Amino acid sequence: MHDIGHFPLGHELEEIDKKIFSHAELTLAMIKGEWNKKRRGAKVVKFDSLDDVFKAWQTTPERVMAILAAKPNDPSAKRKDKLLRSFFSGPIDADKLDYLLRDARSTDVPYPFGIDIDRLFSCLTTVVFERIPGGMRDVPSIGVHAKGKVAAEFLTFARYAMFSQVYWHHTVRAQKAMLFRAVEALLAPLSTDTAIAQFKSDFVAMVAALPENLYQDQPTILPFPEEPTEVINLGSIETSTDLAPTDAAVLCWFRGRLRRSNHANSSLIDGILSRRLFKRLWVVSYEMEGELWKRIVDLWDRLDRSGRHTVSLSLEVKIAKLLTAEQTASVTSLEATEAKDLIDQHTAAEKPWLLIDIPGNRPGADVGLYSVQEGQRRKMARRIESWATCRRPKSGKTTLIISGRQREKSEFFVSLRLSILLRHQFHGKPESRLLRKC
Fold first, then answer.
1. Are residues 203 and 255 in the same domain?
2. Burial per residue of 142-151, b for 16 or more beta-carbon CB atoms within 10 angstroms, e otherwise
3. 77 within domain boundaries
4. Average pLDDT of the chain?
5. Is 55 among the domain residues?
6. Closest Cα to residue 268, out of 354, 199, 331?
7. Do 136 and 209 belong to one domain?
8. Are 143 and 371 in contact (CB under 8 A)?
9. 126 and 140 fall within a common domain
10. How many independent structural domains does the chain possess?
11. What pLDDT sits at residue 333?
């Protein structure tokens, strides 16, 4: 139930603006049976009833929502609910096992297949933390016995490997940068709460109306709820993109909105759908230039969605001036004059040609993962049974999941990388001297 409202491109869109795109908010609405924000501009969206599901599992919507909302630092949440929530939102959980293995099958990457799931399941246990960051005491959570430590470590390493090799691969990051720029441009004119509420309602109505066969990877002609006369033939999208039909449907919806407002950023969605992607021009990571990386991240984190969009546009203009100046050296394999012509063409048409990509903050688990040594099992069990204070096992601590920001430097997580991307017409390796000047 916890991801029933997880719409296509959910994490990417939430990275743009979580107040507008929130799969957790949509999940609660679907459990309740309707989306009804009772705000000016908002619309009511009805969902299919889940009463039969709750009846079959002998539970209620209120019980499910209580578990979903039982965060470790919530003083009003019951301990039992916090423990149940850690099964799907914790340092090791069903959600991670699900998406790691599913993504590994989709991308043909082997790392998650090395997770010893049987060992992990057989070594699961419960621990109660005396105190967690934020001040809450006696917080129960899922843990592992010492025998399952290696299996848990391998799950964490598999997650790191998937970020390094798949989720933050430069081709994936290029597509995300193109999506971010296009959606930010679409949202930029929404200056009032009424306009934002209306957009959110339209988006929710669209994802709720996606046909079931789209989730079975079957192309279809898709009607959008707010434009009954407009249809998108998903079967006409190039198969070389490897896009899921659900992702393609949402992209087409964004593209349609951009086109109706005559926005040139619709070309970015065209590029994603046809796999005409931007190329890397300049990349910086913590390992390459630590101080510069820290400055960039600090400045970027201070900006909201509107501020980031403004900075991206300003940087594009400034670098265009430098690259089109007289006696400028060639930056790519194109001659300087040819590059200047391309930049002039895109600038005149108000089409983006340079993007900034900074992977967003992805927080870790609310509590860490700890292994219980064999000699502590009976003592730990007695404390858990009575919900008494349970101290963290000193000898059993493992450096598996690092709570807080994933972009912090650690042995398990790949560092954030800033990328400057050029439109796909530009090829070749950049000259670092000119780029440093830019």
1. yes
2. bbbbbebbbb
3. no
4. 79
5. no
6. 354
7. no
8. yes
9. yes
10. 3
11. 66
SS3 of 124-146: EEEEEEEECCCCCEEEEEEEEEH
Domain termination residue (choose one: 274, 293, 328): 274
Show the tokens assigned to 359: 């992977």
**The tokens 């509420």 sit on which residue?**
197
Q: Using DSSP, how many helices (H) and how many strands (E) does the chain show?
A: 17, 10
Tokens of 339: 């590059």
Q: Which two tokens stand for residue 423?
A: 């439109």
Residue 434 CA to residue 332 CA, distance in Å, equals 11
Residue with tokens 């001659």: 335
Regarding whether 158 and 93 lie in a shared domain, the answer is yes
Task: Encode pLDDT of 318-367 as tens digits.
Answer: 888 877 776 666 666 667 677 778 888 888 878 898 898 888 766 666 66
Which strand ranges, in their side-by-side order, compose the sheet holding 279-285? Answer: 279-285, 417-422, 354-357
Beta strand spans in 72-156 (E): 124-131, 137-145
- Owning domain of residue 311: 279-361+415-437
Instruction: Using 50 as the pLDDT threshold, list the residues of the chain that sit under it.
Output: 226, 228-230, 239-240, 380-416, 427-438
Residue 384 makes CB contacts below 8 A (sequence gap 6+) with: 126, 127, 128, 140, 390
In contact, 401 and 140? CB cutoff 8 Å: no
Burial call 349-387: b when 16+ CB within 10 Å, e when fewer:
eeebbbbbbbbbeeebbbbbbbbbeeebeeebeebbeee
Q: How far apart are CA 47 and CA 32, in angstroms?
A: 9
Q: Is the dihedral of CA 125, 128, 133, 134 positive or negative?
A: positive
Cβ atoms of 318 and 420 closer than 8 Å: no
Look up residue 82 and give its amino acid. Answer: K
DSSP letters of 208-257? HT--GGGGGT---EEEETTEEEEEEEGGGS-GGG---HHHHHHHHHHHHH
Both tokens of 320, joined, read 């265009």
> For 150-185, how does the pLDDT look when each residue is reduced to its tens digit (9 = 90+)?
999 899 899 989 988 898 888 999 999 999 999 999
Shortest CA distance to 409 belongs to which of 143, 160, 112?
Answer: 160
CA distance 92 to 400: 9
Crossing angle of helices 305-323/170-187, nearest 10°? 110
